[in-house]
């Protein structure tokens, strides 16, 4: 918004398109998402570990009626274990390749430990 | 629409509600945590153009995997059989690949923040304003349709009164999008993608065991409904009869080309996910990464529809109290014990909310960026537009909730609305495709092409088809034909108008038309993006080949 007064060559419409592109570039520089947004892998991993444990326990204590309903498959046990594994995979992935916040133009560097979890 | 019988009540217990409650808490947490990352309007609308491709790719497919889509495609499976795979393999994958390989460099490279903004640069204000208004109105009303669909499903499955479902779901969507903008919408979509799969995969496995495996199901359905029911192409010759009411030509042109390209390449609720990617390579890979799950989703959506038809042969028959949309709820009721049942209810609710959130987050962007900031309140400080966007989000959700309440008294209005909006994408696609590939296309042609294509599709559907002037056997078939009509009329009008009006000077089209690159707008490739598995061409053609291979077992 601030530096859009510099006149460009061409007609007004050409400058409109270029000005908007400049504006987006400027906003990109000031954007905080890359530096501050938490990593979604933490959320997926956390939720699926919790869901996995709960559903696995439901499978361990499955009643005969539960088993019969699911065609003699202990579906809670298997689904729970699969969810647990998926959750752990996401947490391990996050640990092995943590997000590195890019150097931000407006802020001082975020502490690196932030990303490694 | 969906009229669910009393008998569909699920035997949910405290365990299932615990799982549901955890999900709601996490979603709200995402909203609060994402809030700190919103500093500029670009953060709110496009996550600061900073997300990695795997996240935007999963959000791209999840934004489409709303609950109306899941229940609807399972319903199509039960009604039309294996023909339903056309909506995925020919009706989605080629368009997604085209978006990634051909169109994304223009969208992302020109740094537009929305699909209408691209029209502003390519054609000018008249087509920009027209498409912005059409999009904003339809997005917010579709959000309402989604909310209403959620309310009737929850009423039947859980016994919640309709207004409770509308208020609760509406409130959560409002909260997390107002707080975190597109970032929280995208994160929630990625989460929803995994939860819905964790529900649909066990459902399919248990269901297949119940009906005697794939062979048992296939034999039974072939016996009851004929050979063509389990094939993709049999009976689609021109003039021959099939349940879909369409022939191979309308399937390939209407569904596979016009409708699908219109939806996937110009619907901003989808394209927005790709525009939030961190660089051009990630933006191009967004729809390509999404194409792979899209190819496999019929295995857990269409197959349950087929299973439900074996288990409840009365499904969809008059007097049974069950219509085709009940396919997945019937399986949930009959096959899933508490625990996985809670995951399934959560997944369904999450899918409804994500579908609504995709519409709301694209609505607030187009309204704020393309209507408010472009024509009503120009050149305010950026913080003003962030505040505006938050207010617009609240207003949008409230209008959506109002629409849902109105719909609960006049339910057939909703069917019309949905059909109506399905006609807006096709003319938009005509304008894009011709404008991108034919440099001479004039600003006036953009506007008149958009308007005439939209009107033509409506005349064909509501007058020629509904009044019986032409004979098409089914609504689906009529949709395909209307789309082709919209495409042809829009294209012809653009051609004629272009020939009699003045084109934009070539130097204003840099980066907007095929074969041009805008000076100074190229980005150097990021480190690691030259790895072979990140090559867009390989991903794109790989998806096309995989989709073609998937057809083989259903073609003979």
TrEMBL record, chain A:
Alphabetized, the UniProt keywords read:
Membrane, Transmembrane, Transmembrane helix
Q: Where is this region: Disordered?
A: 1-25
Q: Which organism is it from?
A: Streptomyces cacaoi
- According to the record, the segments passing through the membrane are 43-63, 75-94
Q: List the biased-composition ranges (Polar residues).
A: 1-14
Q: What is this protein called?
A: Uncharacterized protein
TrEMBL record, chain B:
Q: Which organism is it from?
A: Streptomyces cacaoi
Q: NCBIfam families, alphabetically?
A: sss
Enumerate the UniProt keywords alphabetically.
Answer: Membrane, Transmembrane, Transmembrane helix
**GO MF annotations for this entry?**
D-glucose:sodium symporter activity
Protein's name in the database: Sodium:solute symporter
Gene Ontology CC: plasma membrane
Major place of localization?
Answer: membrane
**Highest taxon in the source lineage:** Bacteria
Q: Where do transmembrane segments lie in this chain?
A: 20-38, 50-75, 87-108, 129-151, 163-183, 190-208, 246-266, 287-311, 340-367, 388-410, 416-438, 445-465, 477-500, 537-554
Q: Which InterPro entries match?
A: Na/Glc_symporter_sf (IPR038377), Na/solute_symporter (IPR001734)
* Similarity annotation: Belongs to the sodium:solute symporter (SSF) (TC 2.A.21) family.
The UniProt entry lists membrane topology as: Multi-pass membrane protein
Q: Where in the cell is it found?
A: Membrane
